[in-house]
Amino acid sequence: MAEIATAVTHTITPTTDELKSLRVGMKTALDTGHGTEIERKPVAASP
């Protein structure tokens, strides 16, 4: 069980590069107005 738990922890824990990539992706999504449900819904609802 300990080996499985360790493997899961390592899989879930992102690396520094992954965090940077995620941050850039989120910033791009916010800048373009795409990428999240909250931002897409008003666009889809507008006539």
Automatic annotation (TrEMBL):
It comes from the Bacteria. This is Uncharacterized protein.
